[in-house]
Amino acid sequence: MSQVAEIQYYHHGRFRVAGGVLPDAITAYQTFGDPKNPVIVFPTCYGGKLDSESSELLLIRWLELELANGLLGQSYMVGEDKVLDPRKYYVVTFALFSNGESSSPSNTPAPYNGPYFPTITYEDNVRAQHAVLTQKLGVKKVFCVIGFSMGAQQAYYWSVMYPDFLERYIPICGSARTSPHNECFLEGPKAALSASKDFQDGHYKSVPQHGIRAFGRVYSAWAYSQAWFAKKGYLFNGKYTSLNDFLREEWEGGFLEGWDANDLLALLKTWQMGDVSLIRDGGYFTDCLGAIKARGLIMPCKTDLYFTPEDSQNEMQFLRNAKLVIIDSEWGHMAGAGLNAHDDESVQAEVKKFLEEP
């Protein structure tokens, strides 16, 4: 079954980030299993939250495939009947900065609150996660970093930033660099939210309903493939009666229930800035990928519209120790999120095989 663990909070103190400094940066995390077992790091994605006791109803909805898209959890991969089995591994899940649990525009006091929150990069996140592992949890080596979407991009960053600390990495529906097309797609929901009449340049006093609803609707078409929509996957076997019902509940409701508008935009900016070669090799992407030591399992989806399989195939030309497995699914980007049993079983089977390789 899926696991629920207490969310813990690590205080870094004064912490430098790409856009300046956070006087008291906080990283939210969870641990599952025995610290003596091989360590697996599982960071959140865009729209991702850590699971807690207060989200048990959400876990049930996951198991029924009735996900609120604004509240993606980590539980679909962690559990005694899951690939990240706490009986075999010491699993550490991390919340990205700006997700509302770690330091974010919505929970940081003045003067860095709301629209004044500094720009955060993937590099900042991974440095913070490394600090939790080494300074708080006493971890000496990470067996594997696995992640979906923005979590996948963090897996790439781990492999570049800490080559002697990490043994394996598994990016699911992600890339080592955010492509220009991916960055352009994100400008759509970003503009819908920031230009709304109730966003007020980030100084809103109540939930900017118009902006967040528009954000969700603009984003929604990109998450699944054209074939999925053509086959009316959005009806979810009778749960919804129309496309509009689906958009209202899953995309408007999900983000309205679980997300702050400034958090959405701050986290989106982290995503847009993704590029592992900016850490090392002066922007020479091919050299950066070629220097990765860890063993990789690269898992894009065939129909992903923004982390495309072509991006992964291009990266494979330069990765020296990686295997490419393309998820054959019409669920698009969401094929890697545990949303349907067939894809979830297929992904977890490949991950299990990779983790158990000598």
Give a quick set of tags describing it.
single chain, 358 residues, alpha/beta, eight-stranded mixed β-sheet, 8 strands, 15% strand, globular
Question: What does this entry look like structurally?
Answer:
The protein has about 350 residues and is α/β, with parallel strands linked by helices. An eight-stranded mixed sheet has the order 1-2-4-3-5-6-7-8, sandwiched between helices. Helix 3 links the parallel strand 5 and strand 6. Helix 4 runs antiparallel to helix 8. The radius of gyration is 19 Å and the shape is globular. About 5% of the residues have low confidence.
Large-scale geometry = globular
Determine Rg (CA atoms, Å). Answer: 19 Å
User: Can you summarize the main beta sheet?
Assistant: 8 strands, mixed
The whole-number mean of residue pLDDT values reads 93
Distance linking N and C termini: 27 Å
Low-confidence runs of at least 5 consecutive residues = 52-70
Strand content: 15-25%
Tally of individual helices: 11
What is shown here, in short?
Helices cover 36% and strands 15% of the residues. It has 358 residues and is α/β, with parallel strands linked by helices. About 5% of the residues have low confidence.
List the helices and strands and how they pair.
Blueprint: E1 8-17, E2 20-32, E3 39-43, H1 56-63, E4 90-94, H2 122-136, E5 142-148, H3 150-161, E6 166-172, H4 180-194, H5 209-223, H6 226-230, H7 243-258, H8 261-272, H9 285-290, E7 295-298, H10 309-316, E8 322-324, H11 341-356
Parallel strand pairs: 3-4, 3-5, 5-6, 6-7, 7-8
Antiparallel strand pairs: 1-2, 2-4
Helix pairs in contact: 2-3, 4-5, 4-8, 5-7
